[in-house]
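We were asked to recover a plausible sequence for a given structure. The inputs and outputs are reproduced exactly as logged, with field labels preserved.

PROBLEM: sequence recovery
POSITIONS: 457
GIVEN STRUCTURE:
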């Protein structure tokens, strides 16, 4: 079992292509199914200490994995039963079914067991599940002590993470060969429980990955405040939001933070307040301009955004500034940080999964797009993307986005490229939230950034 951090994410078509290559290179479909099923059985055995296992098998190869797993459990002396919703429809699954010597119960009549393995549907599910499947599945998962899904939980849409059926979450999902969008995109990610990857010998690679902890560089003896990064945060109508961004930048590792424009009284002394002016932005030492938190949407705000863009400094564009942004693609290194509402306003016509839409938006804007949410997607114009799936839900509180813009600004000013800066910032922000515990406010969050950063050195 492998942790999924940093692993490639493949959609169903990419997964099938990788599987076909492995088969073409000489490993047959049945051999792959044997590896998958035996590894599932091994994990189940380790986790269940001899308790009875009920394996639910569907008609396709996901069901085939289930037949193999149940047979392997029996061979190992483990009590295992099978319940199926249909007969196998693929050659490999039929062979696996034929090798199972025990009875096959009807899914609708199967009695609950303490351990349930869901091998009904995998990446082949392509339409809503009927009640004759959903209801027993709900009943059996609901009555199990431990539920484990093979590849993906039955009822989720592999490629976009939507749900074809309201079925309870499982405790553990064993992803086969690669992570799929359904493991990291909501709402299906929340149905997967813990996710572990099983390596079944299919080579996978791709430009979309699960987020992983960054390896940050501590300052060296030669560094000074400017080389560590000067962040200019542009303030506006609601100076508190800009103050949060400035604090996020300072505690997120910047060497120097300037707040341009009106400031609140309660600002750390280390954050330098300056009048907003084109000259202040033109300082060549400014490594990143953060604009948007609390900026307002009036003429003055628009003028500040225009001047900030004209300064040709690397930019983090958030909040109100996203509302003022036109269609023109960025000409300087730029990171846009929209939440769902802002994304819909800017890129509402795009189709596909959240990952596909984020990549298309990045291409159109010629900028890195941080499409925020419980499943934040960081996408680059060249098609790379990182999905951050496990930020604490406590982050859904006012002002945390302002802090994020500041943290990303600090990474950018510190010399990271736009994609890395955005990915690092999102990771540090989520890690700070984890450390902050429940019910924090955005001001508290910033206070946990140094420890989050320290964990990445
Ligand atoms: N990716 C890989 O390299 C490997 C994948 N394997 C397994 O193969 C799976 C994919 O197998 P399949 O392509 O056969 O697909 P599935 O086993 O996911 O399901 C396809 C079957 O379900 C039916 N079906 C789809 N939606 C339905 C619905 N709503 N109600 C009723 N029936 C429905 C289809 O008609 C088809 O018969 C993976 O998820 C994985 O478990 C493994 O066997 C080994 C290797
Ligand atoms: K499944």
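RECOVERED SEQUENCE:
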């Amino acid at each position: 079992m492998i942790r999924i951090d940093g692993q490639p994410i493949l959609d169903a078509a990419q997964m099938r292509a990788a599987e076909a290559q492995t088969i073409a290179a000489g490993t047959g479909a049945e051999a792959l199914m044997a590896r998958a099923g035996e590894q599932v059985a091994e994990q189940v055995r380790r986790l269940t200490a001899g308790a009875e296992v009920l394996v639910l098998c569907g008609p396709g190869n996901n069901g085939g994995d289930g037949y193999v797993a149940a047979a392997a459990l029996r061979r190992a002396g483990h009590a295992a039963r099978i319940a199926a919703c249909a007969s196998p429809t693929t050659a490999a699954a039929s062979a696996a079914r034929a090798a199972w010597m025990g009875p096959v119960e009807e899914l609708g009549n199967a009695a609950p067991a303490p351990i349930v393995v869901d091998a009904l549907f995998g990446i082949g599910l392509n339409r809503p599940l009927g009640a004759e499947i959903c209801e027993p599945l709900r009943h059996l998962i609901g009555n199990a002590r431990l539920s484990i899904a093979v590849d993906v939980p039955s009822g989720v849409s592999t490629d976009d993470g939507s749900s074809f059926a309201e079925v309870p979450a499982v405790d553990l999902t064993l992803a086969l060969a690669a992570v799929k969008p359904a493991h990291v995109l909501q709402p299906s990610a929340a149905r997967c429980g813990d996710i572990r990857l099983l390596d079944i010998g299919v080579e996978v690679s791709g430009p979309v990955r699960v987020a992983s902890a960054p390896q940050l560089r501590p300052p060296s003896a030669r560094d000074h405040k400017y080389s560590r990064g000067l962040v200019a945060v542009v303030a506006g109508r609601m100076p508190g939001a800009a103050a949060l961004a400035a604090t996020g930048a300072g505690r997120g590792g910047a060497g120097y933070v300037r707040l341009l424009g009106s400031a609140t009284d309660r600002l750390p002394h280390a954050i330098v307040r300056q009048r907003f002016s084109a000259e202040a932005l033109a300082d060549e030492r400014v490594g990143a301009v953060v604009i948007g938190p609390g900026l307002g949407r009036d003429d003055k705000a628009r003028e500040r955004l225009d001047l900030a863009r004209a300064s040709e400094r690397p930019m983090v564009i958030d909040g109100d500034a996203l509302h003022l942004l036109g269609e023109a693609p960025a000409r300087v290194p730029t990171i846009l940080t929209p939440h769902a509402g802002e994304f819909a306003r800017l890129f509402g016509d795009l189709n596909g999964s959240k990952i596909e839409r984020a990549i298309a938006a990045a291409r159109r804007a010629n900028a890195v797009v941080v499409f925020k949410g419980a499943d934040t997607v960081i996408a680059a114009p060249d098609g790379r993307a990182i999905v951050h799936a496990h930020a604490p839900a406590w982050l859904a509180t006012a002002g945390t986005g302002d802090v994020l813009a500041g943290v990303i600004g600090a990474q950018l000013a510190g010399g990271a490229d736009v994609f890395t800066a955005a990915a690092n910032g999102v990771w540090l922000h989520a890690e700070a939230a984890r450390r902050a515990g429940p019910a924090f406010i955005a001001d508290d969050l910033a206070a946990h950034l140094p420890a989050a950063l320290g964990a990445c050195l």
